[in-house]
Amino acid sequence: MARLRFPLIVAVALFLTGLALTAALKDRHYMLLSLLLLGAALLPVFLRLERRKLESRELVLLAVLSAIAAVSRIPFAALPSVKPVSALVILSAYVFGAEAGFIIGAVAALVSNIYFGQGPWTPWQMFAWGMAGLSAGWLRNSWWMKKRGGMLLFGFLWGFLFGWIMNIWYIISLPEAFSWGLVMTAYASSFYFDLAHALSNVFFLAILAGGWTGVLQRFRRKYGLLQD
Amino acid sequence: MGPSGGGKTTLLRQLKRELTPVGTGSGVIRYAGLPLAELPEERAAGEIGMVFQNPEAQIVMDTVWHELAFGMENLGLAPQVMRSRLAEMAGLFGLEPLLYKPVHELSGGQKQLLNLASVLLLQPKLLLLDEPTSQLDPVAAREFIQTLHRLNEEMSVTIIISEHRLEEVLPLADRVLLMESGMLKAACPPRELVSKASEGTFAAVQSYLPTAARLYLALPARGKSDTLTESIPLTVREGKRWLHNLASSAAGEPPGGNPAAAFGNNTAALPHKVDSTPLLSAREVTFRYEKEGREVLRKLSLSLHRGELLAILGGNGAGKSTLLHVLSGLAKPQRGKVELARGITAGFLAQNPLLYFSYDTALEELQHMAAFARLAPEEAASEISRLAEAFELQQVLQSHPHDLSGGQQQKLALAMVMLLKPAVLLLDEPTKGLDPDAKVRFAGLLRQLLEQGMSIAVVTHDVEFAARYASRCALLFDGSITAEGTPADFFSSNYFYTTAVNRMVRDILPQALTIEDVMTAWQGYAFRSSLL
Amino acid sequence: MSSGFRAMHPAVGLLYYAGLLLFAALITHPLFLITELAGLILLLLLQGQGRQLLRGLPFYLLMAGSVAVLNPLFSHRGAHILFYLWDQPITLEAVLYGLIMMLVLLTIFLLFISYNYTVTTDKFMYAFAAAAPKTALLTLMAIRFVPLFQRRLREITLIQRFRGIDVGEGSLRKRMRDGMTLLKVLLTWSLEEALQTGDSMKARGYGIRRRSTYSIYKMDWLDKAVLLLLGLSGLIPLILWLQGYGAFEIYPRMKPLVFGSGEAVMYISFCLFVLIPPGLEGKEIWLWRSSRRKAYPSVTPEPNGTRSMSSPLR
């Protein structure tokens, strides 16, 4: 785990500093740059996946969890912001760890967008859900994440974080107008959506937590899958 | 061959190195002179191919061509090699029209053929098959076995297959291994096994043999010439020829009179005190899944009476499962009416028992079901223990439902349905994938339920099962019931769609459907012939 | 189904859409943006995606339009002040910049509609598999599972209704809980089966060596020619842009649009790049139409009204 955490932190830090740097330099092409940086943030985990020797069962397990997360998005398509994906990704990461969580989140975003339409938002969603999984995996051994309330709070926070990450790609199309006012406007306009997402996360986590972690942990035990 | 849980799968997995289960083992398996463990990885993967039971679960990729290429990609073959092999295989299997289809559009039989083809692309010298046809309907199963036969005859691929459906496989086999509780009980050519089965120790094998062989064993009057094992019949054709020889030597002239009279009530082994008022009836029901879709059921009328076992037969995609959905009230017909007699409920058991399970132990499943059925706690407990006993589930109540065997899962699901105390039970393909003994046991279970006054409708492909246990049969074709009647009337009027026994003896005993029928009738027939 | 531009090698499509994305982000000259937008609309119409375009348009216009409104509200730089709103200056530059960004966003949205149609997942994965074979494999497997799981979920929903698990009945809380129970059944079942999938992969030699890739795409001379043409016609505007041509400077002070000989070369080359795929599609349509008219006039007579029995006998 420790080997993985370092390059990832570097990548994420790189991404954030990159964004900040370009904003400071008043370069005009944030959109391209942000895509490049997103790629840089997604790269390390996938690179590790490529390098790592994965048992076929582990690969199928990742595919199944990603596909279930993607499928779970379909019945709720009519309700904006109600996406069980976040909850499923967080729970999968809670059981199988940060790396698996990131991959499941990112692949679920990519695959579900085959049905919802790919767009400039795809890499951002991959990043946001991937990060939700990654952070849940990192924190899974902390005392408060093991508590029910802690996990629910975590889900609540990610509801907002997800929305905020998704707002970035919108905001960077207005580099000249960048100001705290604009950020506030963008975030305020998405507030209710984010709140709905956060609350649905809490709800899904609350009813899923016991049952799903049970099922996943049974599989992990039974077949010794994805042990760190 | 051998009963479920006898170690067939374990044996096959020992032969396929990649899948050898964890555990302790001793002894050596040699492949082409080399111990299996020393075989290079690529040879082990390529030359020993394996096809499993579940057609759906084996597919890895999203489209047919991708799936076919998957194995070859794993072995790192060059694109040119892959292309020519794929072209060859697509031609052999007639897969060309399917090549670009997503796999989820294929039928079960097509999926299993795809699995076979994608293994064959690695050019195996040894093919291991673990009950490959148990999830297929008879037509697809026959096609699959024919393909195997061709591979064996034309390409001389060595094939090791474990099967319950031996009617078609056994006549093609060179050698039969009989496994029981992890032991190899016999290893000999099929006809030798049949002759062994007539002796005491192998009597249990009988239920696994093809009908012709069982008939051969069952009839007492075997001619003197029949001591030769070569003359033991395995197929319907051989059986018919043998029977005619036997009949002419016994009687010397064609039979006269109506032998059907000789076996009176024996056609249905299950009791049926049929009541005239229907418990469940469908009147001119029309159903389609989508507004613009095909009419799956068309002005269909059917009724189920108290205490009867109705078998609904029909080809693939005839809408049999849909009919059960409509009868059980899970789907609402667009036109027509489904009526259930006052105060009773209908229970429905789907083909796949896994659909029913959502808790961690079998006991929990039953308890939650009892709670849903609004049973009082004491009543629930007693009911559960009664059902567990009747369904032989006591040992596994604490297990996870997914860890049970297929037969146990089915029984557990049935027990869950029974907690709702239905008066009518609707079963979708309950005999699929069961070994012959399990089938007999399952029929026994149904018999108990019928004796308790339940009515059962079974949708099935299993002609033999319907002929033996049903009190009434109905044929679903083109969305409605086209023929209906007692098994004797129903099947004896069919030419192809009837039991193997009937196909063998129809010239002599047109109404005999099962071996028991023939046995009872034969005595009368032989007796009468000897008088003349 | 698959014809014209769509039937070409994936590399062609990827190069085209990547190029369009790059130009949309780099060249803010309104003429170029409008040309790109028009080219895309033409391509979409030729590909028969007009309906898709109309369906998405309200959302796209809302998203892109909000940019045009928000920019002048929050950006107050620029020399030409039009008027004051809530004591904030609204500048001509900010309005124009907002409009330009609106065009950029619209272009990107339309680009993705066409992309979703042309570069199917299969093609994307093909291009991807070379760089990241395991990720591509994982994604393909997930793609294969999605329709399977949807079907399973339907079956589970139907059967579980028998034990009172029904998302269509009861309080919202119960319905959502039931929905999750259904997903849990799906999860348990699918994970159990996934182990068999894993076995089947292993049985076919997964993981013993580096995988090769089978491809159903073959690059023919037309693919190569179009690739070359796209590459060249894309490179020229890019190089010229690096030289400073085609720039439209708004901030801090709007400069007049220049359109010199450099821009002319750049624009012609750019038009070529944008219009090659619509051209290919158009050619295909024309080809089929003319072949239907000319080549086999007698073979496929249109059945109209009463059919004469004598015609096959003649």
TrEMBL record, chain A:
Pfam families: ECF-ribofla_trS. Gene3D superfamilies: 1.10.1760.20. It comes from the Bacteria. Keywords: Membrane, Transmembrane, Transmembrane helix. The chain crosses the membrane at residues 30-47, 59-79, 85-116, 150-172, 192-216. One of its GO terms (cellular component) is membrane. This is Energy-coupling factor transport system substrate-specific component. It comes from Paenibacillus typhae. The lineage of its organism: Bacteria, Bacillati, Bacillota, Bacilli, Bacillales.
TrEMBL record, chain B:
InterPro entries: AAA+_ATPase, ABC_transporter-like_ATP-bd, ABC_transporter-like_CS, ABC_transpr_CbiO/EcfA_su, ECF_ABC_transporter_ATP-bd, P-loop_NTPase. Pfam families: ABC_tran. It comes from Paenibacillus typhae. It comes from the Bacteria. GO terms for cellular component: ATP-binding cassette (ABC) transporter complex. Belongs to the ABC transporter superfamily. The keyword Membrane applies. This is Energy-coupling factor transport system ATP-binding protein. The lineage of its organism: Bacteria, Bacillati, Bacillota, Bacilli, Bacillales. It is found in: Cell membrane. PANTHER family: HEAVY METAL TRANSPORTER. Residues 1-206, 280-503 form the ABC transporter domain. SUPFAM superfamilies: P-loop containing nucleoside triphosphate hydrolases. Keywords: ATP-binding, Cell membrane, Membrane, Nucleotide-binding, Translocase, Transport. It is a peripheral membrane protein. GO terms for molecular function: ATP binding; ATP hydrolysis activity; ATPase-coupled transmembrane transporter activity.
UniProtKB/TrEMBL annotation, chain C:
InterPro entries: ABC/ECF_trnsptr_transmembrane (IPR003339). Keywords: Membrane, Transmembrane, Transmembrane helix. Coiled coil: none annotated. It comes from the Bacteria. This is Energy-coupling factor transport system permease protein. The keyword Cell inner membrane does not apply. GO terms for cellular component: plasma membrane.
